[in-house]
Amino acid sequence: MKKIITIAVFFLVLGGVFLKEWKAQQATKADCISEHHLYHDNHIITARYHWLISQHGGSLKINGTFNDNGIKQMINREVTFSYKSSDERYYHITTKKIHRAPSENVTEERMRAHYPPFILQEQAETVIRIERAKKNNLLIYMNTQPAFLCAPTKV
Question: I want to staple 44 with a disulfide (CB 3.0 to 4.6 A). Which of 2, 56, 67, 94 is the partner?
Answer without folding.
Answer: 67
